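I would like you to sit down with the pair of lines that follows and say whether C-alpha cells and residues agree.
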Amino acid sequence: MSERRRRAIICLVTVAGTALGVSTVAATRAATPEAASTAATSAMLQRATQALVDAIAPGERAVWEHYTDPAFTYVTEDNEVKSRAQVLEDLKPLPSGSSGWIVVEGFRCADFGNFAVTTYIMDEHETVEGHALHARYRGSDTWRATGGGWRLVAAQLYAIPGDPPRTELASARLAEYAGLYSLSAATHQTIRPDGDHLIAERPGRAPQLLLPESGDVFFTPGRPRTRRIFTRASDGRVSGFADRREGSDLVWTRDAADDNSR
C-alpha cells in the first residue's frame, strides 16, 4: 500500500469516528432532558401518591382536594365507581381503636407530557382493637398537567388476593375425597390423598395441589381466586365438587363406581 493511500484511509477513519462521536453526544444531549423530565415527573407523582394515601387514615380531605381534578373518577377495589365529591365525603378518620398506614412501593410512571400514567403497590397495615391486618393493592392512576400542577383525574384500585390459612385434616378424612370425577363424558380428573393434602390429576396437565381451608373447602396455593368445594349426598358421602372461579361454579360429579368413601 502506498503512503498516499494509507494516509487517505487514516483520514477517512478519523473523520468517520469524529462524526460518530458527535452524533452520539448529540443524541445523548437530546435524550437527557427528556429522561430527566420523566424522572422528575415520576418523583413528583410518587410523593403526591404517598401524600394521598397518608391522608386516608386521618381523613385529611384537604390533601385530596388539592391533588384531585374536579372531574376525578375513582374505581374502588369493590368495583364501585365514585366521583370526587363521593370520595371526599368518604374521607373520615379511622374509628377509635383503629390505626394504620400505607406504603407506596414499586412505583412506575409513563410521562406523556400533558398527562402521565402511574402504577404501584399499596402495602397497607392496619390495627383494629389490637388485631393486626395486612393487605396489598395494585393502584393505577392517570394524572393531568395543569397550570396549577399535576392533578389526579382517574384512579383504579385492585385488591391483590392472598392464600388463606390452611387447616389440618386426618388421613381418614382426606381419603373420603379420593376418586374419579367427571365434568362431562370427555373430561375427567382423579383426586387422591398425598400426605396431609390432596392431589388432582388430569390427563395432559400438571398435578394440582389441594390444601384444606375449612370443612369441605380446598384451595391451591398461588391461585387465591379459586376454590374447590366438595359436595356430599344425603348419606354424607362425597358426591362431587364445585370448581368455583370468581363466584361461578364448574360442577364435577363423582363416578359412583369409583366411590370408596363408605
Notes: The radius of gyration is 30 Å. Residues 11-159 form a domain with the Nuclear Transport Factor 2; Chain: A, fold (CATH 3.10.450.50). The first helix runs from residue 3 to 54.
